Amino acid sequence: MPRDGSDNSKRFSRRKILQGVGAAGSAAVLAGCSGGDETDEQTDTGAPDIGNSSGIATEATDTPTATAGEETATDEPESTPFPKVDQTFRWGFSRDASLPEANLNMHGQNSFGELGWPVYARFGKSVIATDEWVHCDVEGWEFDLDNREFRVTFKDGVKWHQNEEVIDDYTGEDFAMQEHFGRLLTEANPEAEVPDDVEVGEWSHDGKTTIFHLNVDKLNKDIFESGFQRRRLWMYRDHWADQYQGLQNASSQEEMNEIRVKEVQERTFGLGDDPPLSGPMMLKSVSEQGATFEKFPEHWSYDGTNWTEYEWVKLSSGSGSKYQAATADRIDFNANIPDTVDNPPENIHHMFIESGAGFGEALLISYNNKAGWFGFDDPEPSADMTAGKRQAKARQGIAWAMNGPQITQNRHGKYAGQFTKPLSRPVPGNPNQIQREFPDLWDATPPSLQEPDAEKAKEALRESGLSEEGGTWVRPNGDEVKVEVESFPWSREEIETIVTNLQAINLNAEHIVQEQSVLFGNLGGGDFGFAQSWHGVSGSVSASVGGWITRNGSWESRHTPDYYEVPPVGEWDAEPTEEVNAPELNKPLSRTSLEEHRENLRKLIWTWMYHVPGIIIAPNPSACAWNDEHFKFPRHPPRSSGQNGRYSCAGDGSEADLVYAVGQPWRMVRRGLAHPHGPMARTE
User: Fold this and answer.
1) Rg (CA), the chain
2) How far apart are CA 599 and CA 131, in angstroms?
3) In the chain, what is the straight-line distance between the N-terminal and C-terminal CA atoms, in Å?
4) Which domains does the chain have, with CATH numbers?
5) Where are the beta strands (DSSP E) in 250-301?
6) Are strands 360-367 and 348-351 parallel, antiparallel or unpaired?
7) How far apart are CA 365 and CA 378, in angstroms?
8) Cβ–Cβ contacts within 10 Å for residue 141, how many?
9) What is the distance between the alpha carbons of residues 446 and 460, in angstroms, rounded to a whole number?
10) Is residue 349 a contact partner of residue 109, using CB atoms and an 8 Å limit?
11) Which residues pair with 382 in a beta bridge?
12) Range list of β-strands (E), 82-202
C-alpha cells in the first residue's frame, strides 16, 4: 500500500486511460506542426548578457573554434571507446515562461519535455536496425499471461528525485502505469471486455522486483509488451494521473493553469511529496531563472555520463532573435532556435539530433489551390476527373520528381549520407506499428527517398489533367502552370533543390524566400501555393493522421477539406471509388468498436499515403550532425536510430549508444563542447 495507507487500486477509469493516451499523441502532433515550440511564441527577442542573474554558475568553458574535419563513415571503426568529458551543459527555456510554467516534465500535454530525457528514469531504448529493446533503468520485466502477473525489476541506483530508493516504501500501487494499461485494454484483444473501472489489482514485492497482479481477463501478451516498451512509458506517481484528469475537467483556463503549475512543480523538481523517478541527473538547486542538475555517483550510468552538471537557463530578453539570445546566454540546446544557421558564431556548432521510426521531424511540402497554381477551379471537374483525383495525381507527380537523397543531404549537411538511416516508407505515426498491423499498406507504399523518375512524374501530371506543351505545363484552359515555392530564409538550399527538381520536368517553378513571420502568416491564412511546412510525426498513428486532418491548412480547397476521394486501399492506379470522411474515421475508440477503429485507421493511413505520397523529404534520419576535428563519430553507421533516446547525457562508447533523440529532437545548437548524446566527445 502507499505510505499514507490509502487504497489507490481503482484509480484507473477507462475514460482516464483513453484521454491519457490520446492527449499524449496529440501533443506530439501539435509540437511538430508548430515547429516544436511548446512554451514560446514565434516572435523574435533579444539577448543582453545575463551574467549571474540566474543564481547559477555561468563561467564560460574555454573551447577552441572547431572546424570541419575529414573523418567519414567509410573509415574503419575505432576499437576504443571515446573519452568522457566533465563539463556543464546549458539548456535554454522560454524567456516568457516563469519557472513553474516551464516545460521540463514528460507527461500528458507536455510529453516533449526538453530536459526530461536525462532527468527521468527510463525502462528501455530501441535499436531500430535489429528491432531489439535494451534495458536501461530496469534489469528486466516479465509478463506471465497464465497468472496475469507483470514483474518489473529495477537496477541499483535508480531513485526518486528526493534520493530515496525506488523499492522499499514506494512500490506497487504508487506506480501509475497509465499508458501501459491503455494500450493493453484498447488495442490488445478484440475479445477482451473492458470494464468501466480498470483495477490494477494487488501487488507484491520480492527484493528489487515489484509484481503487479492484473485484474483483467483475456490479455494480449504481444501487444502489452509492445506498448510497455514504447516511448512515453514512464512510471509516475498516482496523483499525477489525478492531476491530469483534473486538466481534462477544468472549467476555465485559470483553473487549468493552476493545476499545471502545481503539476510541473511537483514532477519536475520534486517539490511535492511524490517526486518522479530519476535518470542520471538529480536536482541540485532551483531559482526563478532556472535550475541546476548534477549527476550522482550511485546511478548505474554514472561512468557513461559525459556531463557533470546540467543548467536549465531562462533565455534573455531584448530586441534580438532567439538565436542571438541563445548565443549570448551560451545555450547549448534550445528547441526554439531555427534549425539552420549559415554562419554560426564562434564556438557555436550547428547540429541535428533527430529520431527514427516515426518519432521526429518531417519536412513536408504544403499545397494550396490559390489562383495561379495548378488551377483546379477551372475547368469544372468532370465525372472521370474529380477535383480530389486531380490534386492527388498532381502531388504524386511532384513526389516522383523529387530527388529525395539530395534534398535530405542538403537539409542535414554533407555528412547526412554517412550517418542517416532514413525510413523506408513515408507513413504517418509509428512505421513499426503500421508494418506489423497493416502489412498490406506497408507493402503498397513507395520508398520515401527514391531517386527522381521524370517519366512517372510526367505521367501523373498528365493524369491530373495537365498537359505538356512547348516545354512547359498548361492547365486545361491553356494557361501556363506556375509553381511558386516559398521557404524560410534558413531553408534555401534544400528548397532550391526542390525547385530544380520541378524545373527538370519542365514545370515553371520559382523559389521565393519569405521572412518567418510572413510565411507563418501565409501558411495560417492559406495564402500560398506551394510552401515548406513543419510536421512532427508522432508515435500514435491516429494522432498523426488526426493532426494532419484538422491542423494542416494546406489542404484547404474549394471542396470540403475534410473529404478525400481515394481508390480501394493499396490500389494506386485504380479510379477513386470512395469519398472518405476523415473526421468521422478519426473518431476516438471510445465512440466505436475496436474492430471498426482499426478499419477506420487503415483507411486514414491509406488516404494520407494516396494524397501525400513521398513528400516527406527529411524522413526522420537517425543521426545527422556536423563532424569536425574536435568531435568524432564512430566511423561506422550506428546500430540504433535513437527512436527512444534514453539518456541525452550518457553513453558507454558502444556502437548502439552513438546518438539518442532528446525531448524535442528537431534541432540543436551547441558550443564546442562534448556531445551530450552518447560517446562523441572532445579528442583534445
Assistant:
1) 25
2) 26
3) 53
4) 360-426+445-573 (3.10.105.10)
5) 281-287, 290-295
6) unpaired
7) 23
8) 17
9) 14
10) no
11) 385
12) 88-93, 124-127, 132-135, 138-144, 149-154, 175-176, 197-198
SS3 readout for 552-566:
CHHHCCCCCCCEEEE
Per the structure block, which three cell numbers stand in for 590?
471510445
Q: Nearest 5 degrees, angle CA 538-CA 264-CA 104?
A: 50
SS3 467: strand
CA dihedral 107, 113, 117, 118 (to 10 degrees): -110
In angstroms, the CA 426 to CA 615 distance is 8
The label of the residue with cell 540543436 reads 668
**pLDDT tens, 385-405?**
566 677 778 878 887 888 876
Residues 6+ apart with CB under 8 A from 459: 397
* Cell of residue 176, nine digits: 501509475
pLDDT digits (tens, 9 = 90+) for 259-296: 655 655 554 444 444 445 677 777 777 666 777 888 87
CA angle 75, 81, 86 (to 5 degrees): 125
**Which three cell numbers mark 18?**
483513453
Q: Which residues of the chain have pLDDT under 50?
A: 1-86, 100-101, 103-115, 126-131, 168-200, 218, 220, 223, 226-234, 236-241, 244, 267-275, 319, 334-364, 369-373, 375-379, 413-424, 534-543, 546-560, 617-684
SS3 492: helix
Query: Which residue is listed with cell 554560426?
Result: 344
Cell of 285: 538547486
CA angle 239, 269, 355 (to 5 degrees): 90
CB atoms within 10 A of CB 272: 15
Measured CA to CA, the distance from residue 338 to residue 333 in angstroms comes to: 12
3-state secondary structure of 519: helix
* CA distance linking residue 136 with residue 154, whole number of Å: 9
Q: Which of 42, 114, 43 is nearest to 648 (CA)?
A: 114
Report the distance separating Cα 590 and Cα 604, nearest Å: 18
All three cell numbers of 313, joined, read 537557463
